[in-house]
Model the fold of this input.
Amino acid sequence: SDRGKVAIVGSGLIGTCWAALFASAGYPVCLYDIGEEQLANSRKNVKNSLMKLEEDGLSRGSSTAEEALSRITSTTSLAEALQGAVYVQESTMESVEFKQKIFAEMDSLASPTTILASSTSTIPASSFTEGLKHRCRCLVVHPVNPPLYLTLTELVPAPWTEPSVVDRAYEIMQSIGQTPIRLQKEVLGFAVNRLQYALLAESWRLVKDGVLSVEDVDKVMSEGLGPRYAFYGPFGVVHLNAAGVRDYCTRYATGIRRVLADAGETPTFEEPEVIRELEDSLQKLLPVERMADHSAERAQKLAELAKLKRKL
Ligand code: NAD
Done:
């Protein structure tokens, strides 16, 4: 497919990853941010990411890291970044007022055919695109951190987003080796956080009710459900755990309802005694003073998993 110019608006952690992914897949990329120093830093990180992708055999196209890097330009002019762009991936601050401001600016500069996507993790597109001239070309395209190794990307339209725009964003994500999913309508938390929060709520209750230690909750995932879900999600898993999904529901529906009815209230996630217990336990394993190291180590392990998944 064609590889038109992509603008990355905001060159922080996520914008930098997007720049590397698009350039790796052959797109000309223009990085925009408010300061030269931030842009220089981002370019350095893009280069490291591209070299890492190449080294791990996880490049998103056939070009070398060097070739990919040569496709990247940067600017402190939003107009210059958007000039001729077919697709814009906004990755600035997570605040609804800020998204309204930056989208209004992007809207005034974009051509009528440019797609305007936001990386926002939590803010529905309807809350920052309603009054825009090109609102039918705006949507949320939400990556999962670290996007270099976790390919899932949620596409969430506002009620006024044109379906053909979502189709096009879907193709663009596929073209850079991401794995898009498409929400048919806007819901709070999108898909990833709805599922993640359901799991977090039950984990919280198990600790609060004194059923499991913090370490053991994490083991349920890392040594059990996590690896299982690495290949099939909740539906594939139940299908495989019986003679098909219909058989599973026939046999287990009553039991599932009984367990879920036992689950109790939604936590506040502010219960001081639970927070203390979580902190005591996690601080030993992953001290916050060394967060950058832990995060890099996790990224490296996820890179190994991504390599393995490519082979399977
Ligand atoms: P970040 O703080 O690392 O980067 C934000 C960038 O925006 C900075 O480079 C900053 O200089 C820039 N910026 C500030 N004002 C600006 C302006 N007026 N114009 C352009 N750029 C400006 O944040 P991040 O973690 O990269 O998050 C960016 C977006 O991605 C957020 O909406 C966030 O919700 C979303 N997101 C983050 C994660 C994550 O795990 N961090 C995951 C998925 C999505």
